[in-house]
Amino acid sequence: xxxxxxHNFATIVIFSSTLSLIAYAFDPSxxxxxxxxxxxxxxxxxxxxxxxxxxxxxxxxxxxxxxxNIPRNTANKLGSNVTLLNVDQIPGVNTLGISLARxxxxxxxxxxxHTHPRATEILTVLxxxxxxxxxxxxxxxxxxxxxxxxxxxxxxxIGLIHFQLNVGKTNAVAFxxxxxxxxxxxxxxxxVFGSKPPISPDVLTKAFQVDKKVIDYLQAQFWTNN
Length: 226
Ligand SMILES: *[C@@H]1O[C@H](CO)[C@@H](O)[C@H](O)[C@H]1NC(C)=O
Ligand SMILES: *[C@@H]1O[C@H](CO)[C@@H](O)[C@H](O)[C@H]1NC(C)=O
What we know:
It contains 4 helices and 10 strands. It is an alpha+beta fold. It has a domain at 60-184: Jelly Rolls, CATH 2.60.120. The longest helix has 19 residues, at 6-24. The radius of gyration is 23 Å and the shape is globular. Mean pLDDT is 85; it is low at 9-25. The structure holds 2-acetamido-2-deoxy-beta-D-glucopyranose (2 copies). One 2-acetamido-2-deoxy-beta-D-glucopyranose binds next to loops. Residues 72-73, 76, 81, 226 line the site of one 2-acetamido-2-deoxy-beta-D-glucopyranose. This is Germin-like protein. Belongs to the germin family.
């Protein structure tokens, strides 16, 4: 029979409560697409994407951006223009888990289906009429849509594919808030058909259940970001 001393018992209690803490905790949200582990910490250059400035040297300008009232040029294939203000534009949001976007739409302008891998988005329409929507994950892939007018607000949950289309006769403007300092954007068509190098057509013909000609056509398009 093993005789357990008080110290061993205390160690087991502490160890198991540590384990249960680990079991209840979840992963912190990454602030970059990936972080390949380094064996040699002398080669590490940054943590969470950015160094921190000495707080004594911070100024109001670190938390400031000017010009989000200016309409953006929407003369591109999609007829829309996204101005994202993340930690790269406002260094003061570093580690604060927040960012902002202005989205301009010409008539029929589209912000095409995309996802933000690290953020939920809440969108407010200021001008125009937008048909917006998101699709839930597998297996249901339920589409939630709404036609939004000025003052209307809509939420796009983290990671879900969503879009906004200008269905009014005028330009449209919306502002979006996102709960990451670096939400990331994956535009579905660009990622799937515009990857560099291209994904093998063998993958895409089977995935999309279409003829190789259709995939060749799509992969030959010039996929730009708005
Ligand atoms: C968005 O608008 C800015 C300023 O109007 C312009 O410099 C930029 O090229 C536009 N982006 C796209 C994708 O059209
Ligand atoms: C998904 O679809 C199934 C089958 O129709 C249904 O039972 C389930 O409630 C749906 N789940 C959600 C979250 O809508």
